[in-house]
Amino acid sequence: MVNPDECNVDSILSLMGATIFHFIVGIKIMWGNVAPYITSYLVQFDPDVSYHHTLHVYTAVFLGQSLFMYLGGQLEKKIGPRPTAYLGAALISGCTYLSATCKSLQELVFFQGLVGVGIGLSYSAPILCCFKHFKQNKGIVIGIITTGTGAGPFLAGLVATTYVNSENYSPDPVTGLYDPTTSPVVGRVPSMFRLLGVMYAVIGFVGALLLMSPSDDGEPKVESLMKMENGENASLTNGNGFDVYDKAMLEEKPEAIPTAKSAMAKGRGHQRYGSRVKFTTRFELTTPQMMQDSLCWLVIACAICTGVSGFYVAATYKSFGQTAIDSDHFLTVVGCFGCLCSGLSRMLWGSMSDRIGHFETLELTAYLSPIVLVIYTLTVHSKVAFGVCVCTMYGLWGASYCLIPAIAAFLFGDKHLGTNYGFIFFMFGVTCTIIIDGAGFTGWDFQYLNYAFAVIGLIGAGLCSHIRYLTSKVVDEKVLKHHRATSSVSSMM
User: Fold this and answer.
1) Taking Cα atoms as reference points, which of 60, 33, 54, 30 lies closest to residue 42?
2) What is the pLDDT of residues 47-78, one digit of tens each?
3) For the residues of 199-243, what is the DSSP string, one character each?
4) Is 50 exceeded by the pLDDT of residue 464?
5) Residue 279 DSSP code
6) Which residues pair with 225 in a beta bridge?
7) Distances in Å between the alpha carbon of 386 and those of 333, 393, 487?
8) For the chain, how big is the Rg over CA atoms in Å?
9) What does 307-374 look like in DSSP terms, one character per residue?
10) Which is it for the CA torsion 465, 469, 471, 473, positive or negative?
């Protein structure tokens, strides 16, 4: 639970605003719901357009978000969370509305790419704002906020399908598309974009309005204390504000520290390794410093392999389901509840991570995902099994969104979280875009693609186990000293 001492009017309003704002930053995961409508609409202008082609629209949103996440962190530092959120809301809603004018795949890719830019610029701002209000229990805080990331697509998916296909028309069993000449579904697509654009504007600007920056934005002064397992505290400062333990450790191998000055000034804590000795002083790495730490790249690889299968299922579940299930409304409801499960599960993962650990929680979900993906592939002819598997996949996917920012804050510090997580998400997003686009270019059946992504998920689970091992308790004093000196886990990798 959130610390009651940190609850006040501004913090509660900010948490509400952040959750509401995240209703519109998660809209890309509803693509699977609207893909049949949009693909059918574009076919009337280009008969060669297929699901594999329109998958590029989905990846354009994702790529736009990835490319501008880092800039969003920088922007939040310059102008604050509320103006950053306003800018993001304007791009998301405005470019969705303008998508109604598109008559080619290229035009739609362009405008939806700009929607992704808006998401990237504003995604971190509400989270960073709430992290300044709530300095403890970050897992549950980010879990509450990113609940909106799943609840928003749930709402938008229901609105879109109710408007476009309230009669539950079925697509052509051969092409899987709606006939542009006879089906009323196709003609409603432009108005669907306008309706969604207006809805995103209302939600986004209301959420941004509620974001309140803390009155005292400065860093609290932290004493250098070492907490032993027996609960005793012993000051290790020499009277001049310098941690003598840090000094002793740094003297072991001073040549191994590229940023010794900043390390001594901050008194980098050893809590990232989960050792028996913990320090209240947290280290703070800038993005260039983080990039030099091999643990950063392990986290990125872990995020890619554990998260890409969720993006793939969100984009293709409806097209895959239509190969065996002839009910657009059923598939829509499954997708919408999947989005809701993605959002609600994040509170579960956040609360669990505060109890058993970020790495352990991510590892658990990483091993479950490929198993569920295989069951999802084998049981597509059963409505119940298919629906349960889709919702479960969405729920497990939510763990990555919830835990990776908290892991980045835990490993590399809070001060530069916006830019640090922006860089991690940039690498994550670009790589996932390449993988998913590559899957579209292969032309493989969905069944074979599902198995390929299950294999990637198993690799990610192995990486999660490795990163948990690297951050487990260090009991050897020599290893402890070495890590205090090098500020890296590269020697253990």
Assistant:
1) 54
2) 888 877 888 888 889 888 888 888 888 888 88
3) HHHHHHHHHHHT----S--SPPP---EEE-TTS-EEE-B-SSS-B
4) yes
5) E
6) 235
7) 12, 11, 47
8) 24
9) HHHHHHHHHHHHHHHTTT---HHHHHHHHHHHHHHHHHHHHHHHHHHHHH-HHHHHHHHHHHHHHHHH
10) positive
Residue with tokens 């986004």: 204
Alpha-carbon distance 401 to 16, whole Å? 19
pTM of the complete model: 0.66
CA torsion angle 91 97 99 100 (round to 10) = -170
Q: Which residue is it, tokens 């998916």?
A: 157
Query: CA torsion angle for 364, 366, 367, 370 (degrees, to 10)?
Result: 150
What is the per-residue burial (b if ≥16 Cβ within 10 Å, else e) of 246-284?
A: beebbeeeeeebebeebbeebbbbbbbbebebebebbbb
DSSP-derived 3-state class of residue 475: coil
257-294: per-residue pLDDT in tens?
Answer: 333 233 333 333 334 443 333 333 456 888 888 888 88
* Residue pLDDT, tens place only, 330-363: 888 888 888 888 877 877 887 788 788 888 888 8
d(CA 273, CA 280): 14
Taking the C-alpha atoms of residue 97 and residue 76, their distance in angstroms, rounded to an integer, is 25
Quick one: which H or E segment has residue 278?
Answer: strand 278-279
**Buried/exposed 67-105: b ≥16 CB within 10 Å, e otherwise:** bbbbbbbebbbeebbbbbbbbbbbbbbbbbbbbbebeeb
Q: Is 80 left (phi over 0), alpha (psi -120 to 50) or beta?
A: left
Q: Is residue 487's pLDDT more than 60?
A: no
Tokens of 304: 């890619």
Distance CA 380, CA 490 (A): 44
Q: Which is nearest to 253 in space by CA: 485, 481, 488, 489?
A: 485
Q: Following CA atoms 471, 477, 483, 485 in sequence, which dihedral angle do they give, to the nearest 10 degrees?
A: 160
Give the position of tokens 């795949």: 105
Cβ atoms of residues 485 and 257 within 8 Å: yes
Cα separation of 110 and 64, whole Å? 10
Which residues, in sequence order, are CB contacts of 281 under 8 Å at separation 6+? 222, 223, 224, 225, 243, 266, 267, 268, 269
The pair of structure tokens assigned to 296 is 């950063």
Q: Going edge to edge, which strands form the sheet with 233-235?
A: 233-235, 225-227, 278-279
Amino acid at 73: G
Both tokens of residue 108? 């739609």
User: Tell me, what amino acid is at 441?
Assistant: F
Q: Is 379 exposed, middle or buried (0-12, 13-18, 19+ CB in 10 A)?
A: middle
Q: Are 117 and 94 in contact (CB under 8 A)?
A: no
Comparing C-alpha atoms, which of 162, 160, 88 is closest to residue 124?
Answer: 88
The answer to whether residues 11 and 135 touch, using CB atoms and an 8 Å cutoff, is: no
